[in-house]
Amino acid sequence: MPPRLSLRDISFFERPVRxxxxxxxxxxxxxxxxxxxxxxxxxxxxKGSSTGASAELLVPKWFDKRGDxxxxxxxxxxxxxxxxxxxxYLAGPGFDTAFGxxxxxxxxxxxxxxxxxxxxxxxxxxxxxxxxxxxxxxxxGMPANFFDGMAANIAGVDARLSSDLNDDNVARFLAGSxxxxxxxxxxxxxxxxxxxxxxxxxxxxxNAGARYFKLKLNGDPPRDAARLKGDEVLRxxxxxxxxxxxxxxxxxxxxSPLGELASWDFIIDEADDSYDAFPVAxxxxxxxxxxxxxxxxxxxxxxxxxxxxxxxxxxxxxVTGEDLTCQAGLSVQQDTALGALIGITHAExxxxxxxxxxxxxxxxxxxAFLAAHPGxxxxxxxxxxxxxxxxxxxxxxxxxxGFAANVHPDWSAMTSLQRPKTKIAQxxxx
Length: 430
Hints:
Helix content: 25-40%
Radius of gyration: 20 Å
CATH topology of the largest domain: TIM Barrel
Number of strands: 14
Number of domains: 2
CATH architecture of the largest domain: Alpha-Beta Barrel
């Protein structure tokens, strides 16, 4: 039986993150953002207390792309999602499994956020970050590492939120999981990123030797075509194309079958806002779905279970790693570990590109992560950065007690999470 736990407290903190270069996607240019940190204190039945942590950027205009909302308003949605989730998680008395806590609250979270006009993807952000911190606390308290713990289903993940699966499907998938020792990085090409020349994406000093790339398109066919045809290194792209991500806005995806386009491999990402999103997408011709710990680690595991179950005969289904916002420290470690658990061989990892390593993180904190994870980080000139060799990251150091982290951040070097604001600026560049 998986261990049961009860929650003692959940705390939220944040720290500003300055970008080394602007990143543009859609109508938004990001030059800086706040990074969220969650600290969860739990009691494990017959084991005692334990503390866990998680981290994630508060990314504007991704979780909710509605044009009438400013970037700041969409970040406020995430802050409110966290507040609502904290209230729901702390309200339940008694002990439950880690997944049981999540499963008992996710529907109430979506409903409560909907009453405040918070989109489902933003609504899921609060539980996603709390769940990671709870799991970290559970693994530390047992103690167990993430990979062995999840193979034994320490969180008690079952099929209660996914009617197309049964509990045995999930248990067998987790029992058969094995940590990938290496994950190749996929370098994202922002809409304003130069391609060729020194400092361009094709420069190995910039792309860290990546062999996988993701191209952001603007939704403007002539402009996109000119961009792809105008750069010499991009011309043979069609022959090397692995898949196409989220070709339609999330609000029309569910009513728009791919038809003949299904001969290509398409995935959904932004439309993955519920536990039934992947079965719905499959019926429309999609073959894949993204894994992002900011959308929920348990949903990623369920979707990976589905891909393994459905992928028989000539049909293939897959899960991809699509999170470029993971910053050095807890965020990149936990998301990379999740991918390594569910079999993602290459993942979008651009935090090291748009932010200079640990950026403005206190030196002592960065040094602590380097000492605890020497195979994952290394010194580079005056900064501590991801240790990317031959375009790959090592996951060896992530197999330590807790959720992929030997150390926690310096809580004293951050501030409490800001409350959602009422005065919203309308600038589209942050």
